[in-house]
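Narrative summary of target 7.
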Amino acid sequence: MASPMTYVAPPSGGKPLVSNEDGFVKGVMTYMVMDDLVVTPMSTISSITLLNKFNIKEVGSLEEKVVSFGLNEAVKLLNASLKSKKVLTDVFL
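Modeled conformation, tokenized:
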């Protein structure tokens, strides 16, 4: 799948395009991003549900990975999201 794309620059000057009032992210909260890029608020209940969903019995087998995210990673992430269901694994592992 290869299609040419054109970059469209944001308008210069004027009002900012970002609002602090709307959107998915609310206040100071932790979010979980799954391998298929589903974003959900992270809570104890959602974590336990996820462990049960993937039949994880030993919590010690889990691994947290902190990654740097810049322009190159954004391009790789966008590319992988068009081709794969395991986007984060493909880009960061």
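The longest helix spans residues 71-83.
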